[in-house]
Amino acid sequence: MSGLTRFQISSTSSKRSAEEFPALPKQLSEVVKFNSSGTFFVHAKVADLQFSLYKACPLKSSGGVPCKRKLDDEMFCHTCAHRANSPLQCLFLRLGLQDCEDPEINQKVTVFSSVAEDYLAMKVHQFASMVEKCSEKLEVVLQSKLGQTLSVKLNLKAKGGGEFTTMDWIAVAIHEDKQNEVDNEDGEIIELDTGKKRAKKN
């Protein structure tokens, strides 16, 4: 697969500041192993990135927040039982995160429009315009994200029940990591550029 389609999700398949992230986010492997609902800060590499643009329900709740559920082909929202005349355009990303120490540990993470806009530094309408008119330029932008090290604030939500329980991994904030160190579950500091480890100072 080549070109912009490399990054597209098949149809068959709030802004945060850097100061909100702890100095040393946890490794992805620790959160994968923990496998529990909650909010986590992780440090990981971007191994894969896919996107999907979709039409969403504009109907607002009593609190003034749009539904943003995906509409069907007839512009109908099955959650609100509403047919949209002026649908919203939304962006959905799937990031494949990879553990910085163990490349065998990978996790798919969902990124919705507002966080995706911050991460890509462009609005949804700008992204959609590039898909239509400047696909080669957009491909370069997305390609530049691969291999980046990120600090990601994740919200893990359990769905299902019993033996069928799975986790939804939702990114609620993303920060391009410019630091050179992370900690691991053994209480060591890892230098990202060299891979060297050292004990934490008490």
TrEMBL record:
Q: Which Gene3D superfamilies match?
A: Nucleic acid-binding proteins
Query: Which Pfam families does the UniProt entry name for this protein?
Result: Rep_fac-A_C (PF08646)
Can you give the residue ranges of the Replication factor A C-terminal domain? 52-159
Q: Which InterPro entries match?
A: NA-bd_OB-fold, Rep_factor-A_C
Q: What is this protein called?
A: Replication factor A C-terminal domain-containing protein
Which organism encodes this protein?
A: Heterodera trifolii
